[in-house]
Amino acid sequence: MRNPTLDSVVNALRVVQMFRTNATLTVTQVAKELDVAKSTAHRLLSTLVTEGFAERDPLKRVYHPGATLVAVGLSSMGTFDVQRRANQPMADAAARIGETVKLLVLQGRFSRCISSIEAEHALQVGGGIGRMLPVHATAGGKILLQNATEDHLRRLFPTGLPALTEHTITDFDDLMVELQATRKRRWATSRQESTVGVDGVAVAVTGVANKIVAALAVAAPSARMNPTRRLEIARELLEAAERMRANRADAATPA
Q1: Which one, out of 32, 193, 203, 243, has a CA that is 20 to 30 A from the CA of 146?
Q2: What confidence tier does 255 reach under pLDDT thresholds 50, 70, 90?
Q3: Helix%, strand%, coil% for the chain, nearest 5
Q4: How many other CB atoms are found less than 10 A from the CB of residue 89?
């Protein structure tokens, strides 16, 4: 005799497995893959959202991996517990920079803030932990996308790059040029591209085999972000990211 509860658990796990090969999922896609009714697929996805294993895209009717699932994935990357090892380097960088420092991970067409360290007296911009930000219009997103091909970008944005402000990059060729420049200088910048009056700087956090697993980012009022200031922030973030990598190496060395 079949156990309905067990069947639901198995199906929920199968949905989680689908995120391994799909940046986003739809109710129709899940229903087809699991051979269940759309109402059942919707209920499974809603349960995963409630438990933090999935999140509904705020712009479209699709689902991304949730914060809990992302945290599980990050903690399984060898010995690199990215959030725990980021705390002190982020705190030190925030104190030196005088701005809030955020840790971001990639989720489909968005980056999610999974940790945030505020500097004293810093003006909070761009949202806190859990906030999802558009990858093509933010410095952190560009860092996470820097190795993407144009074909991949077009699959992420099948209807084109949405304009969030008049400064947003909306041409794929222009975005590819921006990503190439990001790879060359090792840090990314955004200038009022997601929010008018807000600029950003970000660098990559790497894990095993130098794979990019996260981004360290600072967003601040544009009035405080001249070229010299952006370079200063980039250098501090690069140092913090290097400390995080050193922490991973130290943890991997047998006592």
Answers
A1: 243
A2: very low
A3: 50, 20, 35
A4: 25
**Distance from the Cα of residue 213 to its chain's centroid:** 9
CATH 1.10.10.10 domain residues, the chain: 4-65
Interior angle at CA 157, CA 182 and CA 136, nearest 5: 30
Q: Read off the pTM.
A: 0.71
* DSSP letter (8 states) at residue 161: P
Domain 77-252 is classified in which CATH homologous superfamily?
Answer: GAF domain (3.30.450.40)
Residue with tokens 């005799």: 1
Report the share of the chain in percent with pLDDT over 90.
Answer: 54
Phi, psi dihedrals of residue 104, rounded to the nearest 5°: -120, 145
Say which residues have a Cβ less than 8 Å from residue 51's Cβ, sequence separation at least 6.
Answer: 66, 68
Where are the domain boundaries for CATH 3.30.450.40 in the chain? 77-252
Q: 4-65, what's its fold? A: Arc Repressor Mutant, subunit A (1.10.10)
Contact 90, 216 (CB under 8 A): yes
State the pairing for strand pair 198-206/212-221.
antiparallel
Q: In the block, which residue shows the tokens 């920079």? A: 97
Summarised one tens digit per residue, pLDDT across range 14-38 is 998 887 767 678 999 999 999 999 9
The answer to whether 200 and 140 have CB atoms below 8 angstroms apart is: yes
End-to-end Cα, the chain, rounded Å:
52
Question: Per residue in 143-182, pLDDT tens?
Answer: 999 999 999 999 999 999 999 999 999 999 999 999 999 9
User: DSSP class of residue 189?
Assistant: E
